[in-house]
């Protein structure tokens, strides 16, 4: 399938999505959001994809936010439509039953920071910058920023960054727990691929259940969360990969998972 604003690549078990509007610092317009929506559906249905990487084309930006040029003159109805579309796509990434790694190669501002936070893991370049500058534009973060930043980095950090709109460098993002690892700019993709390959070597159904258990568990009380954990733990025993993983251990041989 041909896309205008994104590049989709598949290499063995790893799918890579690159937002491709470098002249606008990869800002998210409606067209890009629709393409993202479509590519996430494609990836969800592809049993051969075990892990996903999301990045931005160029050396300057991951995503510099929602497209301000497009949003500037939106009516209330258009703004609502845009917001619904964005939230739908971001939630789809949240619920994607495959791990997704954001390779943050530059600015991740507003909707860009929010997009990175919808991913499971963030690898940042030393030149990456994160922030939620929406209040300076007269709006609130609208693609989950108030909720995901607080859940990832804690309420105090979320309030500080969102109330002030302050943009932070990768090192600070690492210190507050917003990113998992910081590497030199030319190593971001390499590191993301290495993470993705390590994850893709595990039993994919188990990884899928872990993502669901962590995400769902963070939204409910510990008793319910632990019950859900027990449920997915039990479900693993219905998979061929559980038999393979444990048999390979006992037989002291290499395991070969089949996503079954
Ligand atoms: N939208 C559109 N174009 C953008 C853009 C953006 N967010 N960010 C940058 N660009 C464009 C610039 O207009 C410029 O285009 P030309 O003038 O060359 O045509 C080009 O990218 C290069 O940018 P600069 O010339 O500004 O580059 P600098 O190095 O000087 O500055 C910068 C880089 C990232 C500091 C600066 O571009 C900047 O401050 N950009 C805006 C960052 C920002 O405020 N991002 C947050 C956007 S607000 C909603 C849900 C969510 C949202 C909204 C609604 N609903 C529920 C309805 C989300 C809102 C946001 O994300």
UniProtKB/TrEMBL annotation:
The lineage of its organism: Bacteria, Bacillati, Bacillota, Clostridia, Eubacteriales. Belongs to the enoyl-CoA hydratase/isomerase family. This is short-chain-enoyl-CoA hydratase. GO terms for molecular function: 3-hydroxyacyl-CoA dehydratase activity. Pfam families: ECH_1. Homotetramer. It is an enzyme of class 4 (lyase). Pathway: Lipid metabolism; butanoate metabolism. GO terms for biological process: fatty acid beta-oxidation. It catalyses: a short-chain (3S)-3-hydroxyacyl-CoA = a short-chain (2E)-enoyl-CoA + H2O. The keyword Lyase applies. Keywords: Lyase. It comes from the Bacteria. Its EC number is 4.2.1.150.
């Amino acid at each position: 399938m041909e896309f205008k604003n994104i590049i989709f690549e598949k290499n063995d078990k790893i799918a890579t999505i690159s937002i491709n509007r470098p002249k606008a610092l990869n800002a998210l317009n409606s067209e890009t959001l629709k393409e993202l929506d479509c590519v996430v559906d494609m990836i969800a249905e592809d049993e051969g994809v075990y892990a996903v990487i999301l990045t931005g084309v160029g050396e300057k930006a991951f995503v510099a936010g929602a497209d301000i040029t497009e949003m500037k003159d939106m009516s209330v109805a258009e703004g609502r439509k845009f917001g619904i579309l964005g939230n739908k796509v971001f939630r789809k990434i949240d619920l994607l039953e495959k791990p997704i790694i954001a390779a943050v190669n530059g600015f991740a501002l507003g909707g860009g920071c929010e997009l990175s936070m919808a991913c499971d893991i963030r690898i940042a370049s030393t030149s990456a910058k994160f922030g939620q500058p929406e209040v300076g534009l007269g709006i609130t973060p609208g693609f989950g920023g108030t909720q995901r930043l607080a859940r990832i980095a804690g309420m105090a950090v979320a309030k500080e960054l969102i109330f002030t709109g302050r943009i932070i460098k990768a090192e600070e993002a690492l210190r507050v727990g917003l990113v998992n690892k910081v590497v030199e700019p030319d190593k971001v993709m390499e590191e993301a691929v290495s993470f993705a390959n390590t994850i893709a070597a595990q039993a994919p159904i188990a990884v899928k259940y872990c993502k669901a258990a962590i995400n769902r568990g963070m939204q409910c009380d510990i008793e319910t969360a632990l019950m859900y954990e027990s449920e997915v733990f039990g479900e693993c025993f219905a998979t061929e990969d559980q038999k393979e993983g444990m048999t390979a251990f006992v037989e002291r041989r290499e395991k070969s998972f089949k996503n079954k």
